[in-house]
Each structure stands twice: as C-alpha cells, then as structure tokens.
Amino acid sequence: MFFRRAKRTHAVRPESVEERYSSLALASRVEENERMFREVFRGDDTMIFRRFGPEGMFLIMLVDGMINDETVNDNIVRRLEIAVKPGDPAPGLERIEREMVSIAEAKRTAKMTDIFDSLLYGDTVLLADGSSEALILSSKGFERRSIGSSENEKGIKGPQEAFSEAFMPNLALIRRKLRNPALKFAFRKIGRVTRTNVVLCYIDGVCEKGLVEEIEARLDKIEINGILDSNYVSELICDSPGSPFRTTGSTERPDIVAARLLEGRAAIIVDGSPTVLTVPHLLVEYFQSQNDYYRSFWGASLSRVLRYIGFFVSVSAPALYTAILGFHPELLPTTLLISVARARQGVLIPTVAEMTFMLLALEILQEAGLRAPPAIGQSLSIVGGLILGQAAVDARIVSAPVVIVVALWAVTNMMLPNLRSPIIVMTFVLLALSGALGLYGYSLGMCALGVLLASMRSFGVPYTDFAVPYSFRELRDSVVRAPWRRMAVRPFSPKRGGEPSESD
Questions:
Q1: Pairing with 222, which of 110, 128, 269, 435 sits 20 to 30 Å away (CA)?
Q2: Which SS3 state, helix, strand or coil, does residue 459 take?
Q3: What is the domain extent for residue 72?
Q4: For 110-168, where are the E strands, in sequence order?
Q5: How many separate domains does the chain show?
Q6: For 311-335, how does the pLDDT look when each residue is reduced to its tens digit (9 = 90+)?
Q7: Could you tell me the pTM of the whole model?
C-alpha cells in the first residue's frame, strides 16, 4: 500500500492564555523579563524586542506589521531617550506615563493576560528597570480595508457606508449615528485560543435590562477554541438552533444597526467580521428593507406587500403545481388542463420527479455561479439555466410548465435573499408532502410551518411579533410602512414577555 490509513487520535483541548501562563509574573529587572518573554515567543520572528536608554533600562516589545512606526519611534523611544540622561535613575512607570511619553491611551498592569492581549493586538508594551509592572501604550497601525459600500445589502437611497473587518472603526460608525451618552459598549473576549474581542452594544434606558442580562449570560457561556466570524457567535447563542429560520439578525450596514438599537434591541460586534448581529430578531424583519425608510411610504408599502406575495409563491408554487396536477386536476380550468396535458405528452417521469430534478439542477447552477470567478459566475447561472431548461424540454425529460414554475420560484426567491435557505428547505419539504398526499399534504406542511413559527422565540420575544400584532398601531411598520408622522415613536418595543411597551 502506498498510503497508510492515519491513526485516529483524540482531540486535545488547547489551553487558554490564563491556563498556560498563569504561573508567569513580571520581575523588577528588565533582563529577567526579556528572557521570560523571549522564551514565550520563541519561534515567532515577528516579535521585536528592543532595549534602549542608559544601561538598557527600558525594553519595548511589539509585533512587526501591527504597529505604527512613527508613533513608536517619535512618541515613545525618542521622548524617553531625551528625558532620561546617562546617570539618571530609572523612572517609575507612573512618571513615564504622566510626563515622558506622548500617547493618547496608556495603561499600567501586571496581569499577563492583559499584556498578551494588548501586545498581540498592535499595542506596544514598555518595561522599565525597577518596576514589576508593564506600561501598555496604544500604537495600532495594521492595515485594514477602508470603509465602502455593502455588496450584499445594496442601498438605492440613503447612506452607502458599510462595516469593515476593523474593530474600532465599526464602533465609531455606530457612535456617529447615535451621538448619545446612553449608547453603551460592553467588551469581552471569547475563544480560548483566539481571544477575540466581542462587544455588546445597546442604548441604556431603551433596551430592556433583562434582555441585556440574557445576552451577557449567553455570551459568557460560550466555550470554543476560536471565534473567526460573527456567525460563530450567532449559532452558539441563538434560540431554536435546529430551525432553518435564524433567530439572530445580521447586517453589514451601520444605519440598520442604529435603527435596531433605537427600537430597543441590542447589537453584537465581533472583531474581524464585517457582519454585525442584532437581537432579538423577528420574522417580519425578513420582509423589511432599509430602503423602505428612504423613499415614499406608498412605494415602500407596495414593495413590502410584493415581498410577502413573493414569499408565498416561492414556498408554494412547486408544491401546489405538483399537488393539483397529480391529485386534483379537476381544480384547473379545462383549457388550461388540456394545454398542460399536451405539454406533458412524451414525458415519462411523474410530475414530482420533474419538479425535483429542475429545482436541484437550478440550485447546482446557482452554487456553481457563486463559486466561479465573478467574470463568468453570473453568465454561468443564466446561460446554464436557459440551455439546461431548453434541452430538458426538447429531450422530453421535463415539460415546459415545470420550467415556467421553477423559473417563477427562482425569481421570487431572489426577492428575499436573507430567506433563501429557509425557502429552499420549505420548498422541498412541501414538495415531498404534496407529491405523496396532494393538497392534504401541502396543507399539513403549511400548518406545521405555522406551528413552528408560532412556537419559536428570539431571546424571550415571540418570533411572530408584528406578524400577529397586539394592536392596530403595530401594523404601521409590518405589512406596510406608514408615513413618518404616524411613526414618531417606536411602534413596538421587543419585551421579553411579548407584551407591548407601555412607554411607547
């Protein structure tokens, strides 16, 4: 044998920073501290250690490529070399922080976890002879993507800026929208290995206190080696993890986050991810678009009604066609039934098999278009669909009405891109039930869908709020969008019991 089967090994839980370096402590001598940190970062050539000052009394540690060179050279090293002359005793860190360095953000600490977190995030760590503490100096200067527009959430009108992978600029984008001292950012680190910054954002006095406590409790319970994107957090804190419907919202636009915060919700920002989570997330949000609030309420209301119709068509069209043609053809007008029968002449496979084949073929083409280079991806999906559909009809594998129904399904599916995955799941489930039981199976599937949605909650809030309003007032921003004069206050505050807010 040329290849031997690899021996199975048990997964090893990596140690966290606290567990691995809990025995380390800073000494009062720079030489000892330098030896300790060089041993910790042995094999990492990006770590830079530099001794300077009279008799090498100062040591700075930084990561190459993550710091601003001018800040370190001009505001730290040069100022200390000017301030401390040969023969002078080593100054304390408190004096260095107050008088000798010119840095906007500085912090003294003896905790090793704080030192590692700051050092590996682009800050400079300064050690001085005679001190058993470290001075953390803000000097971040790593490259990051500039603020641009969102490719996934195109805006016709209104703000065009979108979040990027940079952490603090994302917070600044939200702060610029909501210039209020009540806007709070609560920091925490998640991930035993990655130590990723995760921020809970909310407006104090608008967001319910119980909701904030629930989110914090779920975040603190996360046990995972690393967080690389906000979807990691979404899956670990969401309600109903087995449901195809998400119970946490996501967006790349600061204006949407600001709007959700004003409604009494909370946002979760993950360092390194351009997608921000918003909770609680309600079913009605799938049918709302931020563009609705930047144009006439008449056009916005019409678009929103069309989205509801598109959702029903995309979920029901394949299943209804299969159920009626296979079990209840008497429901069709005679002329239409004759036309469909003529189109099906020579097709040997049943209707449910036709529909399944075409739906799977369309999904394969869409996946191929997404994975292909952008220059040919869109052409592959369109041209491939046209050629495949025409060839299938000519070969009598499927009938022309099936191609029309699948095309209608594909178009209406694109109206709700955030609902694409749930729509695909529901389409195949309803298609299977309709192919087995006809309209009775379709009705059974729709009832099961209604029960599922009615039983779901998002952080204590019923998932179908707005869809099943408590009063006529809440209809102002659900099926339609009322004029702004009628929406001077929030139509609904997501309460953890599902009750409307009395203060609104």
A1: 110
A2: coil
A3: 17-137
A4: 124-128, 134-137
A5: 3
A6: 999 999 999 999 999 899 888 888 8
A7: 0.83
